[in-house]
Amino acid sequence: xxxxxxxxxxxxxxxxxxxxxxxxxxxxxxxxxxxxxxxxxxxxxxxxxxxxxxxxxxxxxxxxxxxxxxxxxxxxxxxxxxxxxxxxxxxxxxxxxxxxxxxxxxxxxxxxxxxxxxxxxxxxxxxxxxxxxxxxxxxxxxxxxxxxxxxxxxxxxxxxxxxxxxxxxxxxxxxxxxxxxxxxxxxxxxxxxxxxxxxxxxxxxxxxxxxxxxxxxxxxxxxxxxxxxxxxxxxxxxxxxxxxxxxxxxxxxxxxxxxxxxxxxxxxxxxxxxxxxxxxxxxxxxxxxxxxxxxxxxxxxxxxxxxxxxxxxxxxxxxxxxxxxxxxxxxxxxxxxxxxxxxxxxxxxxxxxxxxxxxxx
Length: 361
Known about the structure:
Elements: H1 35-46, H2 51-54, H3 80-84, H4 87-122, H5 126-154, H6 162-173, H7 177-202, H8 206-233, H9 239-258, H10 263-268, H11 273-282, H12 284-293, H13 297-304, H14 309-318, H15 328-345
Helix pairs in contact: 1-5, 1-8, 4-5, 4-6, 4-7, 5-8, 6-7, 6-9, 7-8, 7-9, 8-13, 8-15, 9-14
């Protein structure tokens, strides 16, 4: 069965084309490079892995609560709408909401795959081309892993959410290479890390936890890549150029914050959309969750040099300014440790974990 038949909502044309024009940079000096990026490149090479082998795909998901997440993680938990649901309706909502989350991860990873391929051709320095090439493989693996989780275990998918689509279109349609870094490496990847962490740490299902943990190990390097490249580049910009980047960052952060309202989901499961959205907007749990999503982005933007009044004001408005003092490097090291601990506990995959033959369309 094709992916299109798994979508809970119509997607229209399954192909989405973004007009993008950019310069392609060749570099004829092969013997220079920043030590920090070259070290990251070495780590990127050493940490390549096979999603078909590192993850035990023989594990099943509970159809009533696929990733075995607590109900408190449901954005309308405790609302009047939630309290009116019977057991069957709650089971259906758990499955659809979790499939919606993984679908957005999947679509975001395809966006990262395309953006990183563009970085290889656009970025002027060879050390960055080296590392970006390893990330292209990382992103392809992430698309594979999340696609397999949806197709084999959920058998349900959702189209890309409007806020995520708008953000990807803004990133991909800009011809300047540093906007790719800023939009994808720092903002999208930084927010994804926090979203993945929530499932990694809360899911009782070991398959769901492992997929997110292993993807996070790669994503931590990707955000570090963006931070290193932009930290070297942004001090060279004029005030006007830096202000333009800050405006882009602020707009993107609001888009990402709004992406988790999931307006399209409520209609799909037969719930009153306006009532659900109104509760999500004021829910204490959702406010806390949204704030945690920026725990990687805020310190990274500060370190990269995008820390003008407009950025600080936006983060104060969102209630996330406190994350400016977070040690992002320690968070990334923790991501590595969690993945390594999973590997240490992992048993030899069963024969069912080998790649499956392609299904007929």
